Each structure stands twice: as structure tokens, then as C-alpha cells.
Amino acid sequence: MKKIQLILENGDVYIGDSFGADLTNIYSFGEIVFNTSMTGYQEILSDPSYCDQMVVLTYPLIGNYGVNKDDFESVSPALKAVIVREACGEPANFRSTESLGSLLKKFKVPGISGIDTRKLTKTIRNSGSMKAIFAPLDYPKHNLDIILKSEMPKDQIKRVSTTSPIHFPGEGKRIVLVDYGYKKNILKSLLKRNCDVIVVPFNASFETICSYNPDGIMLSNGPGDPTDVPETLPVIRQLQDKFPLFAICMGHQLLALANGAQTVKLKFGHRGGNHPVKDLKTNRVHMTSQNHGYAVVTESVGKTDLEISQININDNSVEGLRHKTLKSFSVQYHPEACPGPEDTAYLFDDFLNTVGV
Amino acid sequence: MAKLAHIKKVLVIGSGPIVIGQAAEFDYSGTQAVKSLIEEGVEVVLINSNPATIMTDKETAHKVYIEPITPEFITKILNKERPDGILATLGGQTALNMAMKLADSGVLKKLGIELLGCNLDTIKKAEDRKLFKELMQEIGEPVPASAIVEDLDTAIKFAETIGYPVIVRPAFTLGGTGGGIAKNKDELLTITTSGLNASPIHQCLIEKSIAGFKEIEYEVIRDKNDNCIIVCNMENIDPVGVHTGDSIVVAPSQTLSDRDHQMLRSSALKIIRSLKIEGGCNVQYALDQHSFQYYVIEVNPRVSRSSALASKATGYPIAKIAAKIALGMTLDEIINPITKNTYACFEPALDYIVAKIPRFAFDKFPTANRRLGTQMKATGEVMSLGRNFEEAILKAVRSLETGLYHLDSPAIKKLSEEELEKKILAQDDERIWAIAEGIRRDWSLEKIYKLTEFNYFFLNKIKNIINHEVLLKKTGKLEKDLILKVKRIGFADQTIASLLGITSQEVMDFRLQHKITPVYKMVDTCAAEFESSTPYYYSTYEDEDEVTETTKKKIVVLGSGPIRIGQGIEFDYATVHAIDAIRSMGMEAIVINNNPETVSTDFNISDRLYFEPLTPEDVYHVILREKPEGVIVQFGGQTAINLAAPLQKLGVKILGTSLENIDRAEDRKQFEKLLKDLKIAQPLGTAVNSMSEAQNAAAALGFPVMIRPSYVIGGRAMEIVYNEAELTSYMTNTVQVNPEHPVLIDRYMIGREMEVDAICDGETVVIPGIMEHIEKAGVHSGDSIAVYPPQSVSEKIQMDLVKYTNDIAKALKIIGLINIQFVINNDEVFVLEVNPRSSRTVPFLSKVTNLPMAKMATKAILGESLLKQGHKAGLHPVGREIAVKAPVFSFAKLSEVDIALGPEMKSTGEVMGKDFIYEKALQKAFIAAGVSIPQSGTILVTIADKDKEEALALFKRFYRIGFSFAATEGTARLLHEIKIPAKVINRIDQGEHDIMSEIRSGHIDLLINTISKSKNVESDGFKMRRAAVERGIICMTSLDTAEALLKTLEMNSFVMEPLV
Could you write out the three-class secondary structure of A167-205? Predict the structure, then answer.
């Protein structure tokens, strides 16, 4: 099997087996993060929020049940690399159509297997998410150093968002879903509830959105730093004044920024399917699926018209916000699951209950 | 949301003796629960009849009652102690059944005692098949088509409407006792009959068979605020059809997509919420391999074997958390004991794979039906952790200690193609070895899938193991990259050596030279996301080692591996005590063990836990990493003792009694010389290496002789042989004779058997007590009823025993524990056996004498003399109480196993009864052991010629207190001669009212049957004994046991004699 190297910003080098796309003369550059979900690799690798990231899957056996045609969260993966301990070449599941490696090859995403992913995870935990590069063993060292010193791009949302509106007809309430890099299952969760959904580009104007006569607005998840898209904030302010609004992940962070709160980059983020979140009103704790590198600063919420509705019980970070007077609320995690627990799917119902009332 | 303020005192019910289906896991969960309650300031009262447990140490709870677990005894305790609540969800099915009975009897209501953790309604909904099915239908969870039956006709009618095969599941039984899969009407009749008998409410569920589906389990926890989490899910490699306790299991699930997993996860949460369980719960599913179709198979509304496994697999202590929840605490306020800075309300993320393989006792029961089905047969299990499937499964294989180091069995290798296919279809405990052999023979995976329905994922992994065997053979020599590769997928040095035709020492030397050694990874519940310091490790071949360096002195204690007959929880008890003693002396205790059920593998118990196979290679690697002062081998049973020699050869220091002295006790010739020098008698005997030597030896000693292979556990393959023909048969069929493994032949001495455990520090010998066995020599000591102090042996003999124990311990320079078994023949003391290690009776004797024997021994091993510890040399003074240890068997679970007692050990567990009056102590022991003593009724007696005189004397006494008799003609005549009326019944198949029909029709209340060596008679005896087991009738094969029972009856009965 062909060897490939993974070099971290801190100088650590991992040499493992190449799988997926073949990197012969080229390299792959991105931010390295880890996800602790034990299932759901297909959903993870096709989640647009991983744009420009290299994902370490901490569960060591990946690819066991293959990939299938149903479980994509976007049309094509936006991530830069998949890092695993072992990639299964002979998957077995009734829905499996091909192996993980063959899928990655098709989408030109490189993968590395056979490395000590626990050691790598601990490095990320201790030193924080960092830049990393994936390259053939003989790639000139000098070039690698230059690349590792370069800045990460800041246009991820632009790259993953749709450029023109798309209509998914339904008989129920009309929801405009603002696409910062939405996961398919947000759309599916709305369609399942009979919504008529129009997906619009991240930079759609207030007027354009109003022209669709929506009953409610959803702000989607998406990749990168929320402060990279300040142009979205005035639109969100106008939208929340006029429509019931529900925001997820990136959408949640943008809602916070739009209302005057601040966001901060977390050391290594929350990525996995086991994050306990407490609803401060009911005192109930739910297991949630998460994928975010930034978070809303707790102290910054006090000065705004928002209130903290949910917190992470491990680190007390902000997991949910609610507007004190308007019908808008948001969560940092993924109630649409895929992958992860379905505990909070009821939030879609809660949202739709506020729509058109 | 703090704990319930009014619950200040709680009674915890344990699970009683170890039986198949209910083993050491409940000592682990019970001990954890009690500690957890005490942490919250609750006063804990505990009841358990099993003395071999850590939970029954008086230090564990505020008050410990070692009493029979019956509604009557518990009610007495409730009246005396007046607790505010009862916790019955941590003591297995036994405790749960008690909770139901106590609630039904009204005593809880009368005394105002709350049932904690789950209410009566919940238990009934989960346990009663009908209510459970109704609930599932109500909440829209699919269950296989089924019907509750209480008679055979209904069963047949229903089976015919849904079609065969069907599964029969008796209600309220342990480990599926009495159930099975029926493929046709005949099988249905047989299984339903035994199922109805096994069910205490005479009820069975007949269910559509979904054999071949994936079997998946979820471990769920819920609190009173309705917060729910899944601790872990597990996938059985054996598809539905084999009891999960008998299945090879991996955690987490390997072949489920996120969608499959979330579907079942959401279902499991829905179920626990609908049942309103406050605590732990286990939900079992069948999932179609070809669609999303699933069925709920079963729900256990309590902590179970699976939850113990899940706790060890994830590091998440389910029992501890469940106990706090039972007190009214919620998951989001209980601190996560692993990270110590997050909360218990999260779902563990694993970054390794766990494999569990069950351990069976078929090596001891050659006649048993090995086919696995819905009735659990395993006595124990091993667990291993790895970073890939192959590594985990191969580590588990060598943890089993069946002599196999790999998925390669010489016996299966010998099978023809046809035999191999049959072997795979036989669905027995060796199926995975047969599958590996099929793959080795290039059988297609499709063919194997058709035979087994094992998911292709697992078959491909086994194939990968075989591919690497081929690669090694092809390479033909030690080659660095390849060796690293095969070590990464779990190959043992021994496997590599045999494939390359070299010695394992050569493999190890090569590896050490090339630095191919394992690293140790931490089990932290969170896949390294959070910093933790769990002292719980497993080996793997990767880059980073996570063991933290410490400066304290370290001592390694070897555990005893899986629970099997002959090596049970007693050794885990001693191991845990050794750990405590090491820590109390300011040193670090490091444990190596592989049994997920036990207290010793709770990572809170030791300073460091290595979950590893107990083989020289795996243990040596830990020692290389830890560099301890030395290794203690005497608490881990024969498993650990057997490691002493190979470890010492590798330069490891063995602490305590030296290897040379261990050998002097275990090696026949050296031992003979030792006794001769000490002028202590032993039954004449000799070691033989061939058939002709055996014949000569037997002729010289005179029949009957006791015959056995050397170095065995629990009297395996030990027999009493009465004549030359039997000797020939034994030498050809039972053992393989070779110069390395001689066979031992001793004169069989009839007499009272005595047992002594002692502690020695090299100079002082402390003897906690002498135990007398009720059954005469010939019945394995582990199957005998033991009494402390002796009741029928003279002071002089007791003094002889003390002297001999002293002499032997000193001569063997014992440092630590020693166990000696004696036989008294014509007032003369003979030594039968010396075990230079902790024994089965250590926990029992520790409890009755209040001397912490294993702790004393450990301190002695570590250099603190017994005198300095404050103990006096010699025999410990006897107190007022009399304690009886009685064996408990699992015969109902093992069909086609002979229940007759003999030199081969058969019991799985033990109970203790104590009182100030001997007969009362005996009676308590019988009750605790589940022997339902008939107060009157009919005794069926069949007696061997040699026992007639003794037997008739007993029968007279039974007759005097009102029992009547049934017997076959010969025995009936003898009874008539002494003027005891007896109903004459026919021998088996000799007419209408034969023995079998008498037993089956319920006319017999007790069976006394002594073993005759005549083969024809014996096969009848076997059938009769099995029939009794299946009908739940007590069967005594030793007149000594019968007499003990009689004594308790006589105490309670009035003599019925007319005037003369």
C-alpha cells in the first residue's frame, strides 16, 4: 500500500497508508479537527460545515458498513481529508453500494489510515485545532513549510452555499432556508413536516427573501468563522423582526452576532454525537450531535435582547439562544441529527408551532 | 434536585450463589452500588447468601446479613432493620423476584418501605411476557408474533398458525432456563414441557423465530427527570438464536450505520421511558440483516450481565450511577467518576473495540449437549480491548485459557470437509474455530455465511487473520515489518512461532531486539476528548504509550481469568483483598485480569488495571512496562500459579512462596519425599506414564483407585476406578498419556475429609480454622458441604491436623497462603493434597473466623510478619457460631450432564448458612442453596450394593418422621425386610409404572440414588437423575448429604411411632 504523510503545524509528522484519492504530485491543506462519533462517517464527510477541514475520526474502525446513496448530507464533500486508524475495504450492510475508499476516490478526497489516531487526537486536544498538510512522502520539504505558514482561506460559506434559490415544494408552511452550507437533513426535517421550502444563497437580500412570502425563516449550519460574513448580519436583523426564525449552528452564531453578542474560536471545538445539553427551562438534558469550532461568548449575551436558553453541561458553553421579545431562537447543535442522536428533533415542531400563528 | 431526603436507610438484596446466568457480575454491581449509596450518606443493610463475594465483607456495608435470600428471611431482616427503601435492581433476577414477592406479600406496604429504582408495576411490565407485549404494541415497538401459553395444546395450535421454527421462552427464569428453539411439533412438545416446569408461574411464550437476525443490545440509563442516556450498544457476532450470554459479542456495534443505530437508540429510549425505570436497563433487539426491520426481543429492568460488560467496555460505572439515581439524584448532577470534572449525563465514546467470548464448562462435562441456543450455558466470560477487531478477538481467545492461543484448534483441523461442515452447523461453543478452519481451507465466505449467517464484516476479518497466517508461512522467517503487522492484529508469539517452526522465545527475542512491543492505551469513556486519569489500560501496537510514571513501589497481582467450574469468584475475592493490603502498605497494586464480571477489574479497586490475557507473553509485557518489585501469583487460582514458572524463566520475581516450593507441593515425586521426611502419611499412589505402568500400579495398590491427570483444576477428569476394565477405558479414552503429563493413581481411601487453610510468613503459621466435609472422600471438596468448626472429629485428630499443617507449611517455606486436604481413615490422618496458594474456602473461612486471610497473606508476602500484624501462631480459637458452606449446581441449565457427585467438581457456586445450632446452620445452607426441602412425602430410593447397610439405617430414620418410600424390586425387598413399606415400581422401560413415569407424574418428592458402577444400571441411574433435575426434584447421590438433610428434618419433625 502506498504511504502518505500528514504534517501538523506544530511539526509532528504521521506516516500512514494512503486511501481514497491518490495524491501523487499535489498536496492537501486544511485545518485538522477530530470527531468522536462512532457511526455516521458518511454524513460527517459530506457535511459542508467541514469545508477546508481534515477530519480525524476517533473511532478506529471506519467504513465497516460502507456508503450508500441515502446518507449524504450534501452533493459532494467539502472536507480536505479523512484520517482514520483503519479503513474497511470489505464493508457489509444491506444498503452499502461501495467502500469508503472508493467514494473518497470518486470525490478526490484523500485519506490516510494506519496511524495512531488517539495520539493525534490528544495532540489536537492539548494544542488546539491547527493547520495541517497532506502530501506524498517525496513532496519537497521546503514547499510544505511555506504552505503550512500560509493563511487559511476565509470564503468557505461562499464556496459551499447555493448560488441560486432552489424550491422544494410542499403543501404546508413556507420556510426560507438560508444556506450557509446546509445539511440535507435540515431540509428533509422540514419536508417531512410538509413544509414548502425555498433554499436561498447565504447572501440573499432581505427583499429577495420577503418576495417569497415565507411563513418562517431557518438559518442553516455552515463552515468557518461567523465573523467572515458580516454582510449577512443586517439581513438577519431585518428577518427576525418580521418572521419567526430558527437557526442552527452557524446560523445560531450569526443570530448572536446580529444581535450584538460575540463569538470566539474554541480550542478544539465540539465534534461528536454525545454532547449533553441542558434546556434551562425544563431542566431536561438531551444528547446532541455537534460540529462547531466557534461558540457564542456567554458574557456577551447579557447586553443583548437574547437570553441563553440551553447550555452544555460539560463546559457550560452557550448551546441555545432565544430572543426576549421576538419569535426567534437558535441552537448550536444539530437537531436534525444525521449523524447522531434524534433527541432534539422536536425543535423543528416547536419552530413550526411558532410559524404562522 | 438532590436525593430523596427521607431515604436514610436502604436494604440492598444480592444475587446469591453463582449459577449459570447469574455470576460474579452481581458482586461487581452490588459492591459498586453499596459504595455509591454510602457515598451519599445512606445507611446500607445488605443481604446475600454467597460468602465468596466482596459485597458480603462486613466492611462493605453498615450491616451485612449472610442469610438465605427468601421472602421469609428478608421479611425478618426488614422487621428488624426497618429500612426506608429496598434496592433490588442490582442483584440480578434473584433480587428482582424477591422484590416482587415482598411487594405482593404486603410487607413493604405494612412497614412503609419503598421499592427504589423501579416499582412493582415496571417489573411486572418488563417481566411478564403478556404485559410486555401489550406495552410494546401500545408504544408502537415491534415484537415478534407470539402467544402466551400455559399448556401444550395451545402451544401447538399457535405454532401451527405462525409456522415453525418457534422459540419457547419460559416466564421468570434465569438465563432462559428450560427454553429453546423448536423446529417441529416433537421438539415443541419436549421444550414446552420443560419450559412450563421451569417457569415459576407455569407460563411460556411461544414466539416466531427470528434466528439469523443481527442481535444488538442497548444499555440505557434513565433518571426521574426523564433524562436518558445510552451507555453503549453491543453487537453479537452470533446472530439471533444463541443466548446473548453464550454469544461472542463486540462493543460498540460494528455493522450498523448511523441510521440503523439511531433507529434502535431512539427505540430503546422510548422503551425505558414508557417503563419509567429509574436506573439501568438493557434492551435487546433483533435487526434484519437485509432491511430496517427490527424486533424488540427482551428488556431487563435492572442491572444485568450485559451492563457489567458495558461498564467495563466503556469505563462508565452503570451500577454506581444507577444506585444514585435510585436515591432520586439526576444524571446531570452526578459527577462523572472518570473525568471528575464533567457529569454522568453523557454517552461514552469509544476509540477501541471490545470483544467478549463466553467460557463454558464443557471440558468438564464431556457428555453435555454443547449446542448453544436460547438457554444460557456459559459459566463465565472474558473480555479484551484492541484497536482493531482481529486484535480484540485474538486477545479474547487466549484469555479463555482453553489451551488455544489462536483461532486454530488442532482437534478441528483433523475434521474432514464433511465433519467440518457439520461442526459449523452444530452451533456449539467451538463454532468460530470451525469457521476459521473453513476459511483456512479456502471455503468461500458465501458458503460460510449460508451455514452461519455471520455478518460478512466479521467473516472478512477472520479471513484477514488467515491471510496473515499464509503471509507468515510464505515469508518463512522473522521479518520486521511483517512481525509488526501481525502483532498489530493480535497474533501471539506462540502463533507466530508455530507458523514459522521456531520457538516463541525466539519470536520474543527478535521483537525485543527490534523494539516491537505493545504500548498501553487508556480507557477514558470519551475517546480522548477530555483529559482523564483513569488507571485502566489495554495493550496495542501503536506509537503512543499513556501509562503515567510513578515513583512508588509497585506490586503486580495476577487475577484468575474467566469464571469456570473449579475456579470461581473465590479467587477474585482473594485478589481484591490482596490489592487492598498492598495499597494499605503504601505500595501500588497493579492488576492484570480479563474477566469483565468481577470486582478486581473495577478500575477503582487498584492503582492500575491492565485488561489483558493471562499468558506469559501478555503478562511479561506489562511487567516490562511497569517494572514492579515482583508478581504475586497465589491469589489468582491455578491460572496465576501456572504463570509462575514461565515468568520466573523470563527473569520476573515471584513474590511469596517460591516457585521451587510451589513445585515441591505440586510435583508428585517431590511431594512424596516431603511427606516422607515429615513422617506424614498419604494414600499410597504413584505417577504413571503408560498403560502397562497404570495396570501394574493399580494391581499393587488394589482397587478401587483414584485416578487423574497431573496439574488440573477442580479435579478435571478425576475418577474413582473400580476394576481393570474401567482402568483401561480411562487410560485410552479420558487422558492422553505422555511423559510430560503423567497420570496419577492413588489408593482410594474412604473416610472423613478435612480441609485446612493456613497463612505462613516463613516462620509463623496461623491456622484460621479446620473444616469438616460432610461427604466422604471421593466427592470433590468443592462439591462437598463443609462445616466449621468440625462436628464429628476428635480433639486429638484436630491437633494432628494442626501439627501437620504447621510442619508442611514450614517445610515448604510457605510465604502466604496454603490449603491442605486430609482424609481420616480409621483414626489416622492422611494428606490428600496441598495447594500452595489461596483456595476456594478462603472467603468462607475469612468470614466465619473474622480473619482477613488474603490480606494477612499479602502483608506477609510483602515482609510484615504475622506476629507483627498482631496474629498468634497456631489454631485460631473457635467461636460460638457454626457455619456451613453448601455447593450450588447449575444442572438445570446443562442438559445431558450427570448430576452424580464424584471426584470431578460440578458445582458453580456456594452459599453459607450459620447459626448457633448445627442443624439449623445446615438447614439455612440448604434453603440458601435453593434445595426445597420436602417436609414429608415419598422418597424414591435406588441403592448400590456397597451402600445398603448405611442406606437402610437412614431410611429407618426418614420413615420414623413420616416419609414413605418407592423403590424398584430389589431395594423394596430390603425395605420390607426391615418392616418399612415401599411401593414397588418398575425399572426404566420395564412396564407401565416405571421410574421415569413416577418421577414425571410428580409422585416423588425426593430421590436418593447412590451410584453403582455397573454400566447398565448406571445408564438408568443417569436418566432418572436427569428426570429429577428437570422436574425440580431434589436428588441426592451421596448418603452423607442425605443424612445432613435428614438431620434438619428430624430437628423440625415429630417422630411418628405407634405405641409398642
Answer: EECCCCCEEEEEECCCCHHHHHHHHHCCCEEEEEECCCC
Kindly report the CA angle at B530 between B525 and B533, in degrees rounded to 5?
70
Q: Mutate which of A43, A57, A61 to disrupt the B interface (most B C-beta within 10 Å)?
A: A61
As a whole number of angstroms, the distance between CA B228 and CA B231 comes to: 10
Instruction: Tell me whether residues A342 and B265 touch, CB distance under 8 A.
Output: yes
* B224 lies within 8 A of chain A by CB: no
Residues B733 and B855 grouped into a single domain: no
Whole-number Å distance between alpha carbons of B187 and A271 = 53
A153-185 pLDDT tens trace: 999 999 999 999 999 999 999 999 999 999 999
CATH of the domain at B969: 3.40.50.1380
CB contact under 8 A, B456 and A92: yes
Asked if B566 contacts B887 with a C-beta cutoff of 8 angstroms, the reply is no
Residues of B in contact with A103 (CB under 8 A): none
Tell me the nearest-neighbour CA distance from A114 into chain B, angstroms. 9
Q: What is the pLDDT of residue B1016?
A: 57
Of A40, A314, A339, which has the smallest distance from its Cβ to B346's Cβ?
A314
What are B237's three cell numbers? 457476532
Contact B765, B819 (CB under 8 A): no
Structural domain containing residue B324: 214-348
For cell 467460557, the residue is B359
* Among the ranges given (A240-249, B203-212, B443-452), the one the predictor scored with the smallest mean pLDDT: B203-212
Phi, psi of A263, deg, nearest 5: -120, 160
Chain A residue numbers with beta carbons less than 8 Å from the beta carbon of B332 are 276, 278, 283, 285, 313
Residues near B545 by beta carbon (within 8 Å), at least 6 away in sequence = B519, B520, B625
Per the CB < 8 Å rule, is B265 touching A93? no
Residues B925, B930, B934, B935: is their CA dihedral positive or negative? Answer: positive
Residue among B668, A15, B947 nearest B676 (CA): B668
Q: What is the pLDDT of residues A13-71, one digit of tens each?
A: 999 999 999 887 788 999 999 999 999 999 999 999 999 999 999 999 999 999 999 99
Of A283-297, B317-331, B729-743, which gets the smallest average pLDDT? B729-743
User: CB-based burial of residue B575 (10 Å sphere; 0-12 exposed, 13-18 middle, 19+ buried)?
Assistant: buried
Does some domain include residue B765? yes
From the CA of B466, how many Å to the nearest CA of chain A? Answer: 15
Judged by a CB distance cut-off of 8 A, whether residue A127 touches chain B is: no
Band (pLDDT 50/70/90 cuts) for residue B1 is very low
Active site residues of A: 249, 334, 336
Chain B positions in Cβ-Cβ contact with residue A275 (cut-off 8 Å): 346
pTM assigned to the model: 0.95
| A156-354 homologous superfamily | Class I glutamine amidotransferase (GATase) domain (3.40.50.880)
A3-149: which CATH number, 3.50.30.20, 3.40.190.10, 3.40.50.2300, 3.40.50.300?
Answer: 3.50.30.20
**What mean pLDDT do residues A99-114 have?**
96
